[in-house]
Amino acid sequence: MEFVPHQHRLSRLYREYQNNEIISLHYNYTGKLSTSRYKGGLKAEAVFFLVVCIFIVLENLIVLLAIWRNKKFHSPMFYLLGNLTLSDLLAGIAYMVNIVMSGANTLRLTPAMWFVREGGVFVTLTASIFSLFAIAIERHITMVRMKLYSGDKKGRMALLIGASWLVSILLGVLPILGWNCIQNLPLCSTILPLYSKDYILFCISIFLAILISIVVLYLRIYRIVKHNSQRLGTLRKGALRKSQKYMALLKTVTIVVGTFIVCWLPLFILLLVDVSCEVNSCPILLKADYFLGLAMINSLLNPIIYTLTSRDIRRAIIKLVCFMCLATEDGETRWRFGIFPILEGSTSRSEKSSHKQEGLETTVSSGNGTPTPVKPLVPKKVDY
User: Fold this and answer.
1) What pTM was estimated for this model as a whole?
2) Which phi-psi region, left, alpha or beta, contains residue 39 (left: φ > 0; alpha: ψ -120 to 50)?
């Protein structure tokens, strides 16, 4: 007998989730149908953001391939950075789906399709925040111990990445599992008319708590670095070079975190305003698309930040996408997969052997930090 009410509830949910009239009801209640956005085809700004999304996907795909192809990046820190890149790539895809299914197409959706559309954005956003949090924890532990994780800890990194995606997916599917405002219009969000204000407040509270934790962790890292600066100056050159590499990577992820806060904080604040405002009382809530556009730019900027601030990542990306023209001694010209010579002057000792095998004219760091030229392996021309 207890199974019958549960079956009846599932049947009711199914009918509601397949009824697209609910979409029109909720959008009309929140006043969103009074704008021109839900009339006609895609607007100019929507086409612009579609182009941005294509660049987001391509950029992050290149970074992912560069990390995957380069064994030098097969370490816990770069696993986490790769996970952040993956979440940005998927965010670009989620944004594209959201844009294509928005506007007049929104009113053709069923609630189930609407939850999938918006849930994809929430999942990728949550994955990005948890990736930033995991990177901050890893950086903090690394600076405290002044050494990287050992190989047997890579499994723990994989578990951490898996857990972050599991939590992200769980958070994204809560509305379709029942935490929504269908049949309870006064509790509905204006920006996301089928989402309950309580759910949005819950998510934003989690996001802000994690961002505050990230900032605190980086402040502690800088204090540790400042405290140990004199001791670092007395280290052997090899250890000092490694600590400098830690600092360079720390600078990169710090800029990434700062960019994330600048891009997403306005939307978080707008969602908090949405929670506190009565329906049709805050006209700014109808301009949420511009705030989402700013947040979208974050996924576009991250690969650029990696390229500009990390020499290792920049070198790997250029090696992946560029070709270098090599001239042989007999005057012939040939193309070979490689990287620009100007970047080769900073090649580390760890890459010396691989560059010898590739036959590229490059420079490597010698023990005293002076670049040492490596001659290209070009077969001599033999006269018969």
Assistant:
1) 0.75
2) beta
